[in-house]
Amino acid sequence: MLGAVRDHARARGQGGRPLRALAVAASLAVVVPLLAALFSSARAGAGATALRNADAQAAGRELRLADVRLAPRAQGPALAPPAARLALRPPARAAIVVDARDGSPLFAFHADRRLPIASATKLMTALIARERLPLDRTLPAVSYRAAPAESVLGLAPGERMKVRDLLAATLLQSANDAAATLAVAVAGSQRRFVALMNRRARALGLRHTRFGNPIGLDAPGAGSTARELAQLARAVLRDRFLARVVAMPQAVLASGARRRIVRNRNDLVRRYPWVEGVKTGHTAGAGYVLVSAARGALGQRVVAVVLGAPNERLRDEHSLALLRFALARFQRLAVLDPRRPRAVAAEASARALVAPARALSLVLRRDQRARVVLRVERPLRGPLPRAARVGRFAVLVDGRPVAAVPAVLSRPLASTGTFASLSRRLGSGLTLLVLAAMLTLAVAALRATRPRRAPRPGVDTGR
C-alpha cells in the first residue's frame, strides 16, 4: 500500500503537496487526541485510586460532634446539670433509670437487689389482661373483701364493667377489686392467674421476678428488682392502650352501675406534662414505690424505678431527678444531609457526587456512636441522570444497623468517552502499544508521501 502511495506521489510531482498536507493533518488529528486521552486516563486512574482510598477511610469513620450538625434543642423539662450525677444517690433501697427503647441503664443503684414491689405488681396484671381480654367485653365483678387500708373501686359483687374501665381503675387508682376481677376473668381464679403471671415473667426474661398475687400485697417470696421492673414497664408502654391510660391524670369510667371518676395516684403525671406514668405502690414491706416514665423534647423516652423510699415526697423527688438526668443524656444528630454529597470514583476519568435521597437525623444517647457507610451497588459508568440510584447509605449505631437511605447522584454523570473506554478495557499498557502502532503507521504514511528530489539540470556531480 505504501508503494502505491509513493508511485502516486511521484506521478503527481509538485501536485503531491496537497496530499502531503492532508496526510500530516490526518496524522495529527489521530495521534494528538489519543495521547491526550492516554494522559487523561492515567491521571484519572491515579485520582480514582486516591478517591477510593479516601472513601474507604471515610466509610468506616465514626460520626462524632465534630462530624455532624446538632439540631437546635427544643424546649422541654428543665434538665439536670452534669453535676447532678453526684446527687443521684437515692433515699431508697434501689433505683434505676433506663432508655425506654432498649433498656440501656443511664443510672443504677442496687438495681439487681430483689425487693417487694407492692402495687407495681399490677403492671403484670394489666399486661396479661390486655393480651387475653377484648377491651369492650363486660365482666362481672368478683366478691372482694378488702382490708381498711386497701385501695378499691367499690365494685358490688356481680356489678358489670367493661375491661377497658377495669384496666383504668387498676392502673390509675390501683383498685384491688378491679385487679381481682380481671384475674378471675382471665384464669378462673387468682391462684391460676398468678401462675400465668410467673410464666409471663419468665417469657420476658425476668429471672428474679416472682409474683404471689395479682394485687401486690406483701407475700413470702414475691418481689422483683429495679432493673426487671423497668423492663416490665417497657413492655407495658409498648401497648398503645396501656401507655395512653397510665399517662392520664384521671379517667371517667362510663360502664358499671354508676359513672365514676378515677384519679392517677402518680402525682407527677398531673404536675408535669412530660411525665407519662406509669405506676405507684406502697405496702409496709415494700415502702414507697414508683415506676415512672417521661418523654423529652427530642422525642426520647426514659423509664425510672424507685424502690423502698421512706415517703412519697422523697420517692417523687428522686424520681424527678432521675428522669431529668436521663433526658439530658440525649442529643439529636443530623446524620445524613442531601445538601452534603460525597465524591466517589467512577469508571475511567469521571468523578461522581453521591448524596442521600433524604435527610436523616437520630436521637441518640451521648454515649452512643453513629457511623455512616456508603455502599455502591452498581458500577458508576456514564451517562447517568441526576437522582439515579447507585447504592445506599447504611447507618449503624454502636455497630448495629438502624437505618438505610438510598444513595443517588446529585448531578448527572457524563459518558466516559471512546478513548477512556479503550483504556478501561485494555489497560494503560496495551493502550500505549496501540497508540505507538498508530503513530508508527502515521509517520510511515507521511514519509511515503514525501517525493524524492531530482538532480538539478547541468550540475556535475563529480562522478
Automatic annotation (TrEMBL):
<protein>
    <submittedName>
        <fullName>D-alanyl-D-alanine carboxypeptidase (Penicillin-binding protein 5/6)</fullName>
    </submittedName>
</protein>
<feature type="binding site">
    <location>
        <position position="279"/>
    </location>
    <ligand>
        <name>substrate</name>
    </ligand>
</feature>
<dbReference type="GO" id="GO:0006508">
    <property type="term" value="P:proteolysis"/>
</dbReference>
<dbReference type="InterPro" id="IPR001967">
    <property type="entry name" value="Peptidase_S11_N"/>
</dbReference>
<dbReference type="Pfam" id="PF00768">
    <property type="entry name" value="Peptidase_S11"/>
</dbReference>
<keyword id="KW-0378">Hydrolase</keyword>
<dbReference type="InterPro" id="IPR012338">
    <property type="entry name" value="Beta-lactam/transpept-like"/>
</dbReference>
<keyword id="KW-0961">Cell wall biogenesis/degradation</keyword>
<dbReference type="GO" id="GO:0008360">
    <property type="term" value="P:regulation of cell shape"/>
</dbReference>
<feature type="domain" description="Peptidase S11 D-alanyl-D-alanine carboxypeptidase A N-terminal">
    <location>
        <begin position="92"/>
        <end position="310"/>
    </location>
</feature>
<dbReference type="GO" id="GO:0009002">
    <property type="term" value="F:serine-type D-Ala-D-Ala carboxypeptidase activity"/>
</dbReference>
<dbReference type="GO" id="GO:0071555">
    <property type="term" value="P:cell wall organization"/>
</dbReference>
<dbReference type="GO" id="GO:0009252">
    <property type="term" value="P:peptidoglycan biosynthetic process"/>
</dbReference>
<comment type="similarity">
    <text>Belongs to the peptidase S11 family.</text>
</comment>
<keyword id="KW-0732">Signal</keyword>
<keyword id="KW-0573">Peptidoglycan synthesis</keyword>
<keyword id="KW-0133">Cell shape</keyword>
<keyword id="KW-1133">Transmembrane helix</keyword>
<keyword id="KW-0645">Protease</keyword>
<keyword id="KW-0121">Carboxypeptidase</keyword>
<dbReference type="InterPro" id="IPR018044">
    <property type="entry name" value="Peptidase_S11"/>
</dbReference>
<feature type="active site" description="Proton acceptor">
    <location>
        <position position="122"/>
    </location>
</feature>
<feature type="transmembrane region" description="Helical">
    <location>
        <begin position="426"/>
        <end position="446"/>
    </location>
</feature>
<feature type="active site" description="Acyl-ester intermediate">
    <location>
        <position position="119"/>
    </location>
</feature>
<feature type="active site">
    <location>
        <position position="174"/>
    </location>
</feature>
<keyword id="KW-0472">Membrane</keyword>
<keyword id="KW-0812">Transmembrane</keyword>
